[in-house]
Amino acid sequence: MSQHNHSSPADNLDMETRLTQDHHQSLKLWLRMLSTTVMIENEIRNRLRNEFEITLPRFDLMAQLERHPDGLRMGELSKRMMVTGGNITGITDQLEQENLVQRVADHKDRRAYSVKLTPAGRKAFKNMAQVHEAWVAELFSGLETDQKNQMIAMLSCLKTQLKPQAES
Amino acid sequence: MSQHNHSSPADNLDMETRLTQDHHQSLKLWLRMLSTTVMIENEIRNRLRNEFEITLPRFDLMAQLERHPDGLRMGELSKRMMVTGGNITGITDQLEQENLVQRVADHKDRRAYSVKLTPAGRKAFKNMAQVHEAWVAELFSGLETDQKNQMIAMLSCLKTQLKPQAES
DNA sequence: TATTGTTATACTCTATAACTATA
DNA sequence: TATAGTTATAGAGTATAACAATA
To answer: What are the contacts of A49-55 at 24+ separation with CB within 8 A?
Structure first.
């Protein structure tokens, strides 16, 4: 149990030590990543609420639609925002009441809708997005361009690891 | 408004272009960081619930106490977990009911408590923490040791930026 | 008067499951 | 029978503010 036949006890110890060190390093990284993300998220959440009276999920849904002018179906939004369908219905309802998004019936599939930004929604989001982007740039100004690129690449690695099955 | 006296229009354009590019890069980094963190967090949350029937905040509170065997006061826990006091009361109540933590009266300040792990809590946490650490190592195995160190350093930069006023 | 912790309340976000209407 | 979206419900987590006890 404490010995392997392919290595001396010393090698064995080294290996276990390295393993433990790696575990601790990964844990340290994860805890720092989590706390940093939470702090930034809270900061942005507060600013969005104070400046624009909008919540992060609502902002996110509008951001998704901004990137897809032809609209997205409820199921698509659910996948992209990583929440279940019922929640998308609720957020869409609220945004529709405020005349920021609209449901457009799909001619080919009468069960489905495409959700799109209204002109008012597009205008409102454009303004918010510009300010939001400046906030993010400010909060990340401590990193060099190269560092940001490295970090983007590393995060992609992690993400790929998480969902090995690519979406078809 | 569209001109500066220290540079030609061309330089000016370059500067604006760089600024926009930097904004986009920061935004891209933030969105990737947020989505990756959410995915890992959800994965860990689900595993904790399925394997140990414990939630992430409860696990986090126990983790804080593990690192401070002499106990932490409610206010300390509130700061460290980045949530308001009322929530700490609730989580502590639940853990105390399950005999995992205990409130110990502070002799010097009779308003205050120290929260500590019970022997049972320490034992339970030790087991959970070991498994949890292995999960994290697994989820972060896509990165090299050097990369992890780089990322830890970069995240520290970001965090420092966020709270320039150090805790005294 | 300020601080520690508790209580009460309300709100947002979330998942689950049953439901409808179409495919 | 399967899929797109809705509804209803319950629960976790959060913040706020009023409160009691103590400093």
So the answer is: A51/A131, A52/A128, A52/A131, A54/A128
Burial string for B16-37 (b: 16+ CB within 10 Å, else e) reads: eeeeeeebebbbebbebbbbbb
Choosing among A43, A130, A143, which should be mutated to test the B contact, i.e. which has the most B CBs within 10 A? A143
State residue B8's pLDDT score.
Answer: 53
CA distance B67 to B46: 24
Tokens 């998480």 locate to A162
Nearest-CA residue relative to C1' of D3? A111
User: Which pair of structure tokens corresponds to residue B149?
Assistant: 């160190």
d(CA B89, CA B85) in angstroms, rounded, equals 6
The segments of chain B whose pLDDT lies below 50 read 1-7, 165-168
Q: Which residue has the higher pLDDT, B26 or A12?
A: B26
- pLDDT at site A3: 40
Q: Nearest C-alpha of chain B: how many angstroms from A52?
A: 19
CA angle A12–B136–B124, rounded 5-degree value: 85
For A104: left if phi > 0, alpha if psi spans -120 to 50, otherwise beta; the answer is: beta
Bridge partners of residue B101, in order along the sequence: B117
